[in-house]
Amino acid sequence: MKLEEVKAAEAKLLLSTYERNPILFVRGEGVHLIDENGERYLDILSGIGVNALGYGHPAIEKAIAEQSRKLIHLSNLFFHEGQAALALRLTEASGMDRAFFSNSGTEAIEAALKLARAHAGLLRSEGKTIGTKVLALEHSFHGRTMGAVAATHKDKYREPFAPVMPGVEFVNFNDVEDLKAKFSTDVCAILLEAVQGEGGIRPVSKEFMATARELTKSTGALLIVDEIQAGFGRTGKWFAYQHYDVQPDVTTVAKPLAGGLPLGAMLCTEEAARAIHPGMHGTTFGGGPLACAVALAVINTIEHDQLLQHVTETGTYFRDALEQLAKKHSSILDVRGLGLMLAIELNSDELAKKVLAEMMKRRILINRTSDTVLRFLPPYILKKEHVDQVIVALDEILTEQAASESERAHTTGGKYVG
Ligand SMILES: Cc1ncc(COP(=O)(O)O)c(C=O)c1O
For residue 129, how far is its CA from the centre of ligand 1 (angstroms)? Predict the structure, then answer.
């Protein structure tokens, strides 16, 4: 089928959840996606932070081929080798004690929220005073299921589905006083992203993170750090909270975990894990043998190819180049992020839309989030030459846009605000 046929069929047959870009991709190679006409696109989005090893990576292909010949699915009623092996690697990397595997990010968040409620229940049964409230942050995004969406800040995600899970209160972003004011023994968990993704690539401050840790420790509430977008190497460390001097009680990981196969995990301390017993929580597909085998191959490749170091180096190079660009273009208001989780904030959503469209014409895929923020989430295998390609394109586009804006202002007698 060609693009127009697929578009027409989807318009008739699919639930209308996405406004897709008009490109039909048929395969990928390294950091490139290739469309139906054989055109190559530089992918600086990697399936929204999923394809960490890019496309067609031999380690992933090998793990899929070998494991699929042995066992693809097994119910969680029996043992296979993958879950314990993967849990060992993840607990070592995160400093956690135990893992629960899911199929997606939002399910890992559901597991974390249920754990927080169950853990608070256990503490109450032991005589402690602790409630059921969850504190989440302004600009947060945690997923689309009823619990995760309740902790997601933007009204547009929650309101059409009200009532979502009750008992969530939002704290102003990086506002330590607001956090202190809203925290009490009513709270069973603080849920936050160390670096907010959908909210516009915003790192929480060290002070905010430290305060969240102190407050939760003082009552037995859980500190849950959602690493679904920022974790698993994206910022140059296995977990973004490792840039802070803080160890949470619970963390969630998903997107890049199994190199493109659906897999998520909720990792927690032994103390938190006390609250869960057989039958309380579960999943049919989560932690299947195929996804676990691929995740192990991804971890081995990240280690073998020293990709954390590579992400740090390439991320620093990318960020420096964006900062240089910001000095030249006053339309760039801010440069943010860590490792290969980067963004520039522009001075208008119209400009952000135009830049996105122009980048696509130049066959470079980036993404816009929070209206004015251009987000860069490339595969970890990105090279400096690819960064240069992105920077040259952005420079050209921002220069052109400033020139046409200036011309418009001139002809209309208006004032140009670059
Ligand atoms: C920080 C964060 N948490 C949770 C999710 C939800 O993950 P999923 O789409 O796999 O359910 C996302 C997805 O973008 C995310 O960025």
Answer: 32
